[in-house]
Amino acid sequence: MSNHIGHLHHNWVQSYDPAKLESKLQPRQQEEPMFYYFAYGSCMCPVDLKRSLGEHTHPYVVDTGILKGYRLGFYLYSPTRQCGVLDVVKDAKASVKGVLYQLPWRLSDRLDIREGVSQSVYSQELVDIHCQDRIYKNVRTYVVVNKLAEEVAPNDWYFNIVLRGAVTCGLPEEYCWNLFNHMYQLQLSKSA
What does residue 62 show for φ and ψ, rounded to 5 degrees? Predict the structure, then answer.
C-alpha cells in the first residue's frame, strides 16, 4: 500500500524549474509592429474606423493630440459620402485637435484603402503630434491631394460622425463647439 501512495505522490509533484515558471509568466504574444496615426475627421470615431478596418479600434486610442501649423477645411467632395469631407491645410497660426492612435501595422493597407491613397484622393503625410506633454514624431495622417478652391459642406451623416468621434474621444468642449459651428455654417451657406 505504501508503494502505491508513493507512486501517486511522484506523479503530481514536479521539480521547481525557474526558467519554466518565467516562460509561463511571460505573455505568449510577440509584440506586433505598430504605427502612430492621427485622425481629425470621421476616423476620430472608433466605430466608423472599425467599419473600414474590420476590428475594434478603441483599444488603440492613445489620447487626444494636437497637430500644430495646420487648420481644418472641407476641401474635398467625397462621391461615396456625397458631401464635403475634412482635410488639413498648412496654416502657421492654427492647430488641429484630433485622436492619436497606435495601430497594428497589419491595418496599414486597410487604412490606405479607406483614405483612397491608390486613387490619389488623400496621401500619407508624416507629422509631429503633441500629446500627453510629449511630441510624437513621424505620425501618419492623411492630406487631400487635389484640394478644391472652396469648402464644400458636409451632410448630416458625416457631420454627426465627426462630432461623435470628437466627443467620444474627449476633445475639449470649446474645440467641439467650434467644429460644430464650422460645419453648421457651411451647411447654412449651402442652403442659402
Answer: -85, -55
Quick: pLDDT tens for 114-163: 999 999 999 999 999 999 999 999 999 999 999 999 999 999 999 999 99
The CATH class, in words, for 30-191 is alpha beta
* Stated pTM of the model: 0.83
The helix or strand, by DSSP H or E, that contains position 132, with its residue range, turns out to be none
How far apart, in whole angstroms, are the C-alpha atoms of residue 96 and residue 79? 25
Distance CA 64, CA 70 (A): 16
Closest CA to 162 of 59, 87, 56, 52: 87
Backbone φ and ψ for 150, nearest 5 degrees, come out as: -130, 155
Residue 134 corresponds to which cell in the numbers above? 510629449
3-state SS, residue 70:
strand
